[in-house]
Amino acid sequence: MVARKMFTVSRVAKEMGKHLSVWRRTQRMTAQEMASRAGVSVATISKLENGDDTVSLRTFLNVCHALGCLDKVEEAVNPLYNDETALRIMNSGVKQRIRHK
């Protein structure tokens, strides 16, 4: 039996931080250059790359933009890029508001 990984915010933040670090280093960009391009401090880049889950969404998106991967992030969370979800939306639509009785 294959063990399932627990997807917690902390674990995903650490993994995403590692991924962002790899993106930066493959582009031969220093943390200082990244900070400058994203409009944040080097300390903030360090926090993000080390998986600090308190870094703001705006900062995360600015860093992704600076790395040239913002479009991939948008696609990852867009339900229309998932065939099954897109089909469900086309067939039944999406309610504007979900109310629990």
From TrEMBL:
Matches recorded under SMART domains: HTH_XRE
Under Gene Ontology molecular function, one entry of this record is: DNA binding
* Taxonomy, superkingdom: Bacteria
Report the InterPro entries cross-referenced here: Cro/C1-type_HTH (IPR001387), Lambda_DNA-bd_dom_sf (IPR010982)
Any Pfam family hit: HTH_31
Per the database record, which ranges form the HTH cro/C1-type domain? 20-73
Specify the protein name.
XRE family transcriptional regulator
Which organism is the protein's source? Answer: Bifidobacterium dolichotidis
The upper taxonomy is:
Bacteria, Bacillati, Actinomycetota, Actinomycetes, Bifidobacteriales
